[in-house]
């Protein structure tokens, strides 16, 4: 039997990392990182301030799934993002290179192209970055770093522009109004997307949107299906009768973003 792939999930106590640590199958040898001590023997305590320390932690890993980041997008304040999303991310890529990690899966965000949504325009993985804030701009930095490390150093890099995900939540539990019917990513579709990103062959660099098979989707997931083999099975439309009567709207910077049909 072939050795199991060794997969390191950074930020493994976050809302996505927690799901991956609980649900990734035993065909992978999974380790998680946390900045705080954790009693789970699969976890190691790791910050992202020192490249050499990170490289030691990454040594022997086949794949790094990088979920470590600050994720509050509703602010213009740059300082909170500087260490985790800018410097720490560079450290993670460079440590992966030094450790000989073959594939780096980077958790980007729909906010890397969020301004298209604000002005009512659809987009796909080929659209130019158009961030809707400092958080989204930092995610664009991470996507560009991935392109550089792939071109310059031959690292396989998969960028996932995650839609709307909260730990174990279904659309009626979100507070963004009808937008969630377009942008939701379910637990099992998240898991399938990451699994396929870990094992899909022949990818040097790629950007993929991460949402479920939502009938109202306005981010194109065609390349995730064709190149990764992603097979989403959930559809937020199943919850429309619960979501729509509640009303509400997602807003950012004074713009109301009801979603697009």
Number of strands: 9
Q: Number of helical segments?
A: 9
Distance between the termini: 48 Å
Order of helices and strands: EHEEHEHEHHEHHEHHEE
Rg over CA atoms: 18 Å
Can you offer a commentary on this structure?
- This protein has helices at residues 15-23, 51-58, 79-99, 114-118, 134-153, 180-183, 187-199, 222-228, 240-243, and strands at 5-10, 28-34, 43-45, 63-66, 103-109, 156-162, 205-210, 250-252, 255-257.
- It has 261 residues and is of the alpha/beta class.
- The strands form 2 sheets. The protein has a 7-stranded parallel beta sheet, sandwiched between helices. Strands 8-9 form a two-stranded antiparallel ribbon.
Task: Give me a quick take on this structure.
The protein is an alpha/beta fold. The chain is built from 9 helices and 9 strands. It has helices at 15-23, 51-58, 79-99, 114-118, 134-153, 180-183, 187-199, 222-228, 240-243; strands at 5-10, 28-34, 43-45, 63-66, 103-109, 156-162, 205-210, 250-252, 255-257.
Write the topology of this structure.
Elements lengths: L4 E6 L4 H9 L4 E7 L8 E3 L5 H8 L4 E4 L12 H21 L3 E7 L4 H5 L15 H20 L2 E7 L17 H4 L3 H13 L5 E6 L11 H7 L11 H4 L6 E3 L2 E3 L4
Parallel strand pairs: 1-2, 1-4, 2-3, 4-5, 5-6, 6-7
Antiparallel strand pairs: 8-9
Helix pairs in contact: 1-7, 2-3, 3-5
């Amino acid at each position: 039997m072939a050795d199991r792939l060794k997969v390191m999930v950074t930020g493994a106590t976050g809302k996505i990392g927690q799901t991956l640590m609980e649900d990734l199958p035993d065909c992978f040898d999974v380790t998680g990182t946390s900045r705080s001590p954790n009693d789970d023997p699969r976890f190691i305590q790791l910050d992202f301030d020192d490249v050499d320390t990170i490289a030691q932690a990454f040594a022997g890993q086949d794949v790094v799934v990088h979920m470590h980041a600050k994720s509050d997008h509703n602010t213009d304040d740059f300082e909170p993002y500087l260490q985790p999303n800018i410097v720490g991310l560079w450290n993670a890529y460079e440590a992966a290179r030094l450790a000989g990690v073959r594939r780096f899966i980077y958790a980007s965000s729909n906010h890397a192209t969020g301004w298209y949504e604000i002005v009512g325009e659809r987009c796909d993985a080929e659209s130019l970055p158009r961030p809707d804030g400092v958080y989204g701009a930092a995610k664009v930095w991470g996507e560009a770093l991935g392109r550089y490390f792939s071109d310059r150093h031959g690292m396989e890099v998969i960028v996932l522009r995650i839609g709307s995900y909260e730990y174990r939540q279904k659309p009626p539990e979100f507070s963004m109004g009808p937008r969630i019917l377009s942008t939701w990513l379910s637990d099992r579709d998240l898991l399938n997307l990451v699994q396929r990103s870990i094992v899909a062959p022949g990818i040097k660099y790629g950007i993929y949107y991460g949402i479920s098979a939502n009938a109202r989707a306005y981010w194109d997931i065609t390349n995730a299906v064709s190149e990764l083999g992603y097979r989403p099975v959930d559809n937020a439309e199943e919850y429309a009768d619960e979501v729509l009567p509640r009303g509400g709207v997602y807003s950012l910077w004074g713009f109301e973003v009801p979603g697009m049909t």
